[in-house]
Design brief:
The chain is α/β, with parallel strands linked by helices and 224 residues long. It contains seven helices and nine strands. A seven-stranded mixed sheet has the order 5-4-3-6-7-8-9. Strands 1-2 form a two-stranded antiparallel ribbon. β3, α5 and β4 form a beta-alpha-beta unit. It is globular, with a radius of gyration of 16 Å.
Length: 224
Amino acid sequence: MRDEDLKVLREHMVAEISADAARVRELTGKSRLDERVMAAIAKVPRHEFVPIELQPLAYANMPLPIGCEKTISQPFIVALMTDLLDISAEDVVLEIGTGLGYQAAILGELARKVYSMEIIEELGTQAKQRLHRLGFTNIETRMGNGYHGWSEHAPFDKIMLTAAPDLIPPPLLHQLKSGGKMVLPAGLPDAQQLLLVQKDESGKVGTKEILAVRFSQLEETEPG
């Protein structure tokens, strides 16, 4: 597709995300998403993070299959989860579930450093290649079980999960800084909620349900 066509499709996607944000404002408490988040969504080329045969659909406001029975999340959900983290330019962020790297790229536009883990080697390898090709030097990827986090680089200012555990993983709570935030889907497959988790300066954890979602389940095996 021509660059001009992709630009128009991306602008339409951004407009749909804004409309969705207004539609669910009573659930999220805000009628529009942060300007920095929307700028990142407008900048990152989503078509570079989907299989080539699906590139014409890359800017539709819906999830798309990326192989290995996984999907790239709906753009609105990507934007909402990013917005909920309230990322600053100095933050170090942990992402669990790289997929093909789109969410990591959005985070990379906003944070100082992003560490992203993927349990499926085929996806993780492709994500690393795509992020490198697009010039993201502040994103480090790793193959592994994200349930246990990435302790070598902890604690993290912000943590995002793009796969759903039944309950919030204790290792990730431990690796979240005091004053930090985590956003994740959690619950049984047919009853998942998007959660915002906040750890105050004393280490006390509070959670808030945002809205119902549907994500792939997070692997919860013991560390090898």
